[in-house]
Amino acid sequence: MANPTQATRKLPLDGRLAGGAGVSITPAASMSRVSLRVKDKDVKAVGKALCVALPIKPKTSNMSGDQAGASRSALWIGPDEWLILDGETADISAALAKSKAVMSVVDISHRNTAILLEGKNAVDVLRAGCPQNLNDDVFPVGACSRTILGKAEVVIWRTGAVSYHVECWRSFSGYVFKFMSQAAKGL
Amino acid sequence: MSGLYRIAGKGRLTPAKTVAFSFDGKSYTGLEGDTLASALLANGIVLTARSFKYHRPRGTMTEGSEEPNSMVGVHRDTARQQPNVRATMQEIYDGFQAVSQNRWPSLSFDIGSINSLLSPLFVAGFYYKTFMWPRVAWEKIYEPKIRAAAGLGLSPTEQDPDHYANKFAYADLVVVGGGPAGLSAALAAAKQGVSVIVCDENAEFGGALLYENDVEIDGKSGYDWAKDIESQLAAMDNVTILPRTTAFGYYAHNMIGLCERITDHLAVPDADSPRERLWQIRAKKVIIAQGAIERHLVFANNDRPGIMMASAARSYLNKYGVAVGSKIGVYTACDSAYAAAFDLKEAGVDIPVIVDSRPDVDPMLLERARELDLTVQTGHSVIDTTGKLRISGIKVAKNGQMANTKYDVDALLISGGWTPSLHLYSQSRAKPVWDGEVKRFLPENPVQDQVSVGACAGTDDLSEVISDAQSAALAAAKSLGVKKPKKVSAPTEINSLYGHSGDHIGSSHGAGADDAVKAFVDYQHDVVANDIRLAVREGMRSIEHVKRFTTTGMATDQGKTSNLHGLAIAADGLGKEIPQVGLTTFRSPFTPVSFGTIVNHGAGDLFDPVRRTPMHDWAVAQGAVFEDVGQWKRGWYFPQAGEDMHASVNRECKTVRESAGVFDASTLGKIEVVGPDAAKFLDIIYTNAWSTLKVGRCRYGIMTHEDGFIFDDGVVGRLAEDRFHVTTTTGGAAGVLNHMEDYLQTEFPELDVWLTSVSEQWGVIAVQGPKARDIIAPLVEGIDLSTESMPHMSVREGTICGVPTRLFRMSFTGEMGYEINVPADYAESVLEAVWANAQKYGACAYGTEAMHVLRAEKGYIIVGQETDGSITPHDAGLSWAVSKKKTDFVGIRGLMRDDLVAEGRKQLVGLKTKDPKVVLEEGAQIVADPNQPIPMKMLGHVTSSYWSENCGHSIALAIVEGGRSKMGDALYVPMIDRTIEVEVVDTVFVDQDGGRLNG
Amino acid sequence: MLYIRCPYCEEYRPEIEFRHAGEAHIVRPTNMAEISADEMEEFLFIRENKRGIIFERWRHIHGCGRFFNCVRDAVTDQIIMTYKSGEPKPSDAEIEKAILALKEEQA
């Protein structure tokens, strides 16, 4: 077995950029992602292994640092389900392997891709296709939820006052990106 | 000059701001702010349309969205051609073009008006009776002819170039309507800090205050007062003001649909701007302030152009400075029409007579009429009108008598009183309540979190309207949790001269049951009073039946002006009271909504997500022809120069068996099943057993529903004691996961196992064929690929091209093969490396068509092709995959049902045509004796059929009654032009002992 | 479009996030392989489909992913209560109480 070729990575939205008045739409850099499933009783211990507490309140998230994307984050998705995000080189599974708890750790780094929305009209781009209440009092900074955008399933995570991190499955990303670009027109 | 009928000093438009527009190709001048209706009236054009059925000349009746007649086509350019636009709602701009509809060759000379002479043929329900037989004639002759003759405008022929937007919104309070009630409610609520969305379908807020210039509030004109409130609202952050926005639908759980018209009034819309925006609002509270709609009166020939609602004429005068005629008669049963007459008279227009059907009229009105030197005939009625393309005269008779006086007029204002607009209230599923005293249906029994205020709630008095609206807003704020509401002051002094009392419902004098006249009830659908009486005579008892028999209220205006008249006439005919007959239910939309708005972003490329695999670009580079598989684009075949599909597929199939083929299998569903109880759970979900599967091995599994019928299949690999990699069909991926979650969450929640979709985590490169191992071996590290170490149906984890892989040794072709799973972002790069090696061995890229042929040669089923929801594993010849040891799995009892174990069920078999060149049609029926009489006894059908280049003959799979006992039998496939003889054979056509799988 | 309270997300969400999942409280027999034809018919085919108060299942498929149960008035579409899978079927009295509470909330 001589010298196998080293494969290179190609992101589904490579090279795309869009925006409109008061909003920029940018594909996020590649990340490490884990779908984590844990039972109630192990939530604390697993959070410790992960170095970020698993949020137990619906629609909330926790970050190990103070900057989204640059640190390990845990997003509440369901009552026993979290989306763990970290930088591309981080080994989330290895951290979780330190815990003896019964859980399910599944790498979904390549299943999902993310699009970043930034700007005062970012929320209105989402409102064009997301049926959830995204008003400040109901969806404050840090809020996250699996929901719908147009005809695709997404996870919306509000990372700042006018910043949103939107995750979707890779094959839907072209649709989601185009949807956002269209929605940004004529806001 | 913007029209001869424009009166200097009247209205609020600026005379200097003229715009050029055209109607039916003729150029006119209007003013900025005009609607098409006001601009045409200013130019003395009253004939704007032909009626739906009789092609009678018609003119504008109203000044709002209730307009039944003046519907035109608006042509912005060749692609932007909107039919059925209400001239009363369409603002004009410089270069605006509109055409009339439903006429040929022209509005003033319309051949179709011959229908009017044939009207005895076109009475209510005519199409149920006249043209029923023969049936074929209905489809071929009557229906197309009637459709061509009747009809409402023409659809555009080009694709709509505009884009449309959507917005989901949440608000504490939605206020529908921007008249005095809506404005007062919105401001009172907004001051409490709650979020408010207030909309009005018109270009300007103010409602009736836009034209009722007798109103004074706290020393300001009603108009200025309204503008003041509007500007206060506009300055508040918690308020969204939406003009030109129709609340068209009120749905369950306080969901309101709005259509915001953004560019239709602009000469040069911004290219990026959507034409319209759909708002889907979830409101905690709703205040409906829709106002009331003025009714017409039902008398003979009440539809001539120039006849219109009194309030409309007043509005044209006071908003647009337009007199709707020069000699205007008035016929009323309501006080408010006097105000129109007085305003016009004061503007210098001749008002020959005011006819009031009521014997007793408010002396104040009569006094004012005397001051203005107007003739008022109380206790009289207009019993007929004259004129052809415009009204020229009216015949006025004392009530109860036919002797009449004629008056020359060129316009007639009519008013039968005001109907509270209950459309949204009714859409919210609430039932209108009849108030016998005021003879109105009122919105008194809401079923959602909603309240109606103002004229739509039957409140006429303006101070009451405002105070009701404010209290409703405060009550809403309070129940929204506002603890200490801020004080909201009501106006201290409200003066208005004229009220809205008085009404007449049903037909008027001279249009009774014995009068053979055309007294229109529903203008848009050409329904006259006698049509409704006929419906009653023909046995219609419910108003719902009367409505459908006559089509009254079923036009695009939903009977906004006509419903109550129709109901009263029906009630009279039935000898019942109005509430006993009941009101029909209003449905959304309140006014028509364009398809573009309903679809909004979901048009063109965004109609449905198009899903591409991570290796899509590679397939494009290889010249793939793609097919749609659900939302996926899959490589169908890979033609080389000069090849058609047939040649390409034949070559691909041959090459795979001779050397190897490379295939993108990424779309397969994949579910990672993790947890100590993973095997136990799969034992429940699949018909076969999983606990016995060793780590590193794979098994083909079948899923049935509880009914015992196959619903999905796939290969499952065991990666660890507590980790399985499940594959599903491409189309079944989401359904299988849902099915598994259902059982896990609700039937077996005690199991420690979790399911995660990894369909898109992994790109899957299938390499199949005798050279498969040679092709991939140089790229793989950490896995011993020898058959001894990694036999057929096994899975290993290692690396390929330096990236992690889950390498499956499995086959859907019957050849030795691998499915290389790699993290999706690496898939194309890995494939490039695999492909480079594959080419060294003369391997090919193959698509889904070759994949189908190859698997059919092996008799492998495709769920959804060989199965149709009525096939059990036993029927499909897969009994070996049904565990006999398990005591439970989904479908275990279903499979024991009497019918499912009975003899003679349809079974999967192979078919060989007697003539090897003939390829059967999939779906073709199979019989034992082609000479039996029709209808023949069908034994089953062809499920898959292909030309097999590898076999040198056609092959087919079929579902045949008792098929497995018919091996070797001749059966027949009758086609339209011939009968094809086939032989029943085994389902496996290639390599029956399976030796090739082991390489 | 209905507005449905997900008992796991603890808030109301729009109907598009959910998928209907048929009648609730149909118990899958634990001795599935042994039940009679009549019991199988009852389990597999017979559904109440009543006019009035119904018990139904929903899945918050585009949300937290959980299946849950819902009491809804099939005539008015009013959702009276939602509760987690596995929780007991509410009694008539509990439903009455929930209806009253909803009325008060609106008033």
Secondary structure: elements and pairs:
The complex is a heterotrimer of chains A (187), B (999) and C (107).
Chain A: E1 18-20, E2 23-27, E3 31-38, H1 43-50, E4 61-63, E5 73-78, E6 81-87, H2 92-97, E7 103-107, E8 112-118, H3 122-127, E9 144-149, E10 152-160, E11 163-169, H4 173-183
Chain B: E1 18-23, E2 26-31, H1 36-42, E3 49-50, E4 57-58, E5 71-75, E6 81-86, E7 96-99, H2 114-117, H3 126-129, H4 135-149, E8 165-176, H5 180-190, E9 196-199, E10 216-217, E11 220-221, H6 222-234, E12 239-242, E13 245-251, E14 255-261, E15 276-288, E16 292-294, E17 307-309, H7 310-320, E18 328-332, H8 336-346, E19 354-356, H9 363-371, E20 376-378, E21 380-387, E22 391-398, E23 404-408, E24 411-415, E25 418-420, H10 423-427, E26 433-435, E27 440-442, E28 450-452, H11 462-479, E29 494-495, E30 520-522, E31 527-528, H12 529-537, H13 543-550, H14 563-574, H15 578-581, H16 595-599, H17 616-621, E32 625-629, E33 632-637, H18 645-658, E34 661-664, E35 669-674, H19 678-685, E36 698-704, E37 710-720, E38 723-728, H20 733-747, E39 754-757, E40 762-768, H21 772-776, E41 780-781, E42 794-800, E43 803-809, E44 817-823, H22 824-840, E45 844-845, H23 848-857, H24 898-901, E46 906-913, E47 925-926, E48 940-948, E49 953-961, E50 970-974, E51 979-985
Parallel strand pairs in B: 1-7, 8-9, 8-15, 9-12, 15-28, 17-24, 18-19, 18-24, 19-20, 34-45
Antiparallel strand pairs in B: 1-2, 3-4, 5-6, 5-7, 10-11, 10-29, 13-14, 14-15, 16-25, 21-22, 22-23, 26-27, 30-31, 32-33, 34-40, 35-38, 35-39, 36-37, 37-38, 40-44, 41-42, 42-43, 43-44, 46-49, 46-51, 47-48, 48-49, 50-51
Helix pairs in contact in B: 5-6, 5-11, 7-8, 12-13, 12-14, 18-23
Chain C: E1 3-6, E2 11-14, E3 19-23, H1 37-44, E4 53-59, E5 67-73, E6 79-84, H2 92-106
